[in-house]
């Protein structure tokens, strides 16, 4: 596979100011770039909802290390929320990570942002989520809601006895050597674009960080995929479907699941589009990061083209449509 050729063949990427892509098969990496802005595999992009992969991975690892089952009720791990808890008491960690919590999607970006930037902002966002209660029973239907990950990040913070950011770094970013991944704007940051307008570097509310706040790079996201592929027990737990046959999609813990074993998701923020793919049975990871609002269809086509020789599937529409 010639990754640079595949990138250059995507007509939808030709006007994108900055594109970086990478693939790893059995640990052998290839990277490619294009655009008028010079970027490398180390350049920092906003990765939006790809953050959920790291939140989910860190939380599953943290629970495993402490011998806590995934079906533990969230309330048992966040007793500080008990006075405001109006959600189902049996709601589990597994269900929030799998987006099958049934929680009422009532906490929007504005409500979360209004909570400020203090250490308690995330827990207060989680409090708003559970105060709204359930729309349906846990496990009954898949429904994408960032509030699930406000809870997940709060659980991770509680397990670490510190902030979500500190626990994520100590439990995953540092052990896996993810030196280009974090919440602070990196020196190598790529500016996002909307059409021909260069956008100011976006702020991201602290209360929403577990669902989409990270900066990262192609090289670090390949490392994430390789780390999952190396820990098969962890990977199998994450990739096991938590959805029903009549749900809108098949979903594990933080990942959409394809018909040939693909694990994929996309991320979107103003000026940025990102997509990540794992093929566990082929020991393959690929990622595309772009600094342009309109790039997602082309990003999805590129990711699909990279995996097509390994699966025979066209997954461009699925990657593009994913509700990140």
TrEMBL record:
Residues 17-295 form the Beta-lactamase-related domain. SUPFAM superfamilies: beta-lactamase/transpeptidase-like. It comes from the Bacteria. It holds the Pfam family Beta-lactamase. Gene3D superfamilies: DD-peptidase/beta-lactamase superfamily (3.40.710.10). InterPro entries: AmpC-like, Beta-lactam-related, Beta-lactam/transpept-like. This is Beta-lactamase-related domain-containing protein. It comes from Kitasatospora nipponensis.
């Amino acid at each position: 596979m010639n990754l640079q050729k595949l990138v250059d063949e995507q007509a939808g990427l030709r006007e994108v100011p900055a594109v970086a892509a990478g693939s790893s098969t059995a640990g052998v990496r290839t990277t490619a770039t294009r655009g008028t802005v010079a970027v490398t595999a180390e350049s920092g992009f906003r990765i939006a909802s790809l953050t959920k992969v790291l939140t989910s991975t860190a939380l599953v690892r943290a629970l495993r290390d402490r011998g806590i089952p995934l079906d533990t009720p969230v309330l048992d791990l966040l007793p500080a929320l008990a006075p405001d808890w109006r959600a189902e008491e049996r709601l589990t960690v597994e269900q929030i990570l799998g987006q099958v919590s049934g929680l009422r999607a009532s906490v929007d970006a504005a409500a979360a942002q209004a909570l400020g930037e203090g250490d308690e902002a995330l827990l207060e966002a989680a409090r708003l989520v559970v105060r709204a209660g359930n729309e349906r029973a846990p496990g009954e239907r898949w429904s994408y809601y960032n509030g699930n990950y406000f809870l997940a990040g709060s659980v991770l913070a509680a397990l670490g006895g510190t902030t979500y950011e500190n626990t994520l770094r100590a439990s995953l970013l540092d052990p896996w050597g993810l030196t280009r991944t974090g919440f602070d704007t990196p020196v190598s940051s790529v500016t996002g674009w909307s059409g021909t307008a260069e956008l100011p570097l976006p702020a991201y509310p602290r209360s929403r960080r577990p669902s989409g706040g990270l900066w990262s790079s192609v090289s670090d996201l390949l490392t994430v995929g390789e780390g999952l592929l190396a820990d098969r027990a962890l990977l199998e737990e994450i990739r096991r479907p938590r959805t029903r046959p009549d749900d809108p999609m098949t979903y594990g813990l933080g990942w959409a699941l394809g018909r040939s074993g693909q694990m994929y998701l996309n991320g979107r923020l103003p000026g940025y589009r990102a997509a990540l793919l794992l093929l566990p049975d082929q020991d393959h990871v690929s990622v595309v990061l772009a600094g342009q609002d309109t790039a997602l269809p082309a990003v999805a086509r590129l990711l699909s083209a990279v995996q097509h020789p390994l699966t025979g599937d066209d997954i461009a529409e699925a990657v593009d449509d994913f509700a990140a």
